[in-house]
Amino acid sequence: MEHALAANLFSRHLHLLWQFTRRDVAGRYRGSLLGLGWTLLSPLMMLAAFTLVFYGFFELKWPVEATGTPQMDFALQVFVGLLAFNWFAEVVNRGPVLITGQPNLVTKVVFPLPLLAFSSVLAASFQALISLVLLMLITAFLVGGNVTWLALPLVLLPFMALLVGIALWLAALGVYLRDLGPFMALATSVLMFLSPVFYPLSNVPPDWQSLYLLNPLALLITQLRDVLFMSAWPSFKVVTGLSVVATLLLTSGFWVFNKLRGGFADVL
């Protein structure tokens, strides 16, 4: 039932979804000199900073060689981790205010409110995909591309669906629980260090690795690193697990959202 609602919402309001997503992306850079050029400049500056700090200052090396260039290995591996984390964190931190930040859409017009969750995820995905393409170009320049890159959508699409489910949950609960926003900001900061963003999963003690892999963000990061740098195909087990979790979150997210939306106008 909830799957049908999601598909119907997406197909019927595709143009509206595109307009909201485009407005969201453009609004971030409106009035700035470089405009959308920041989508390229930001990841380039991050990559340069990682290389300087982690290799130039601390002389850290990644345990597994990826590019054959030590000064780039650590920077690129960390870049993948932060790319995934920033993608996740943007959706999670915006989720609690998706509805409360736009009360007119609830109280004054008839609007398909779940569309805000889809739009939020697509806008966050735009920056993530720009960074990913840039990373692939740099990697291809250093060591060449790989056919396994064609399988990246098998990892990215389930994660996007998972993010929509999370956004639906947070958007609905955020109307009633105003402390949810600050709590999620704190939780994502903690999660950054509990996910293999700045270190490989192999650095985690064996007894803790199974627990670590319950974290979808850890699964995404490890799979991206394997596919991009190790010429490995996505793990069937991981892709299946992500797809199952995404389905559960998306289905339950729609159900909770529809149950709670009746009281949105009264609260706002």
Question: Can you describe this structure?
Answer:
- By secondary structure, the protein is an all-alpha fold.
- It has one domain.
- The radius of gyration is 19 Å and the shape is globular.
Largest sheet, described in full?
none
| Integer count of domains | 1
Based on CA atoms alone, the radius of gyration comes out at: 19 Å
State the total count of DSSP E strands. 0
Task: Provide key terms for this protein.
268 residues; globular; mainly alpha
Secondary-structure map with pairings?
Blueprint: H1 2-12, H2 14-29, H3 38-57, H4 70-94, H5 104-107, H6 115-143, H7 152-176, H8 180-194, H9 206-212, H10 216-229, H11 236-260, H12 264-267
The gist of it:
The protein has 268 residues and is mainly α.
